[in-house]
Design goal:
Structural class: alpha/beta
Order of helices and strands: EHEEEEHEEEH
Distance between the termini: 27 Å
CATH superfamily of the largest domain: 2,3-Dihydroxybiphenyl 1,2-Dioxygenase, domain 1
CATH class of the largest domain: Alpha Beta
CATH topology of the largest domain: 2,3-Dihydroxybiphenyl 1,2-Dioxygenase, domain 1
Number of strands: 8
Number of domains: 2
Shape: globular
């Protein structure tokens, strides 16, 4: 059965710009590059967070047929220690609001943005996540 996220893929028309944007946001360079047509790079992959989850950036030319152009669908939420601060930073970097900062009680706070490349990026403070890491 499902055991945890292995890779989250985001698509971008300009995968080089997406790589630069995410490298600035994450404070690390991608550890892997995949070749595309004509000597270009079609894929960049970062390993980030407590579990080194993979975030893949893929040239939109390689997107599955029928992938909607507009943001939508499931929202994957990355745990952050400060939702407000992270949200403010994302917005300052050119992301657009998608869902507002919402406090659910019991230690859960969420928000999401659309990155400059049309992908939905969710952020969340999650007490359960910290309990599982033994950091609470």
């Amino acid at each position: 059965m499902l055991r945890g996220l292995a890779t989250i893929n985001f698509y971008a028309d300009d995968v080089e710009a997406a790589k630069d944007w995410y490298a600035e946001l994450l404070g690390v360079e991608p550890y892997f590059e995949g070749p595309g047509e004509g000597g270009t790079t079609a894929y960049y992959e970062f390993r980030i967070g407590d579990h080194q989850t993979e975030l893949g950036l893929i040239d939109r030319r390689y997107a599955p047929p029928g992938l909607p152009a507009a943001p939508g669908g499931a929202i994957g939420h990355w745990h952050v220690d400060d939702v407000r601060g992270t949200l403010d930073r994302l917005l300052a970097m050119g992301a657009a609001p998608y869902t507002p900062l919402t406090e659910y009680g019991s230690g859960f706070v969420t928000a999401s943005v659309t990155d400059p490349f049309g992908n939905v990026l969710g952020i969340m403070y999650n007490e359960h996540y910290l309990e599982m890491l033994g950091l609470r």
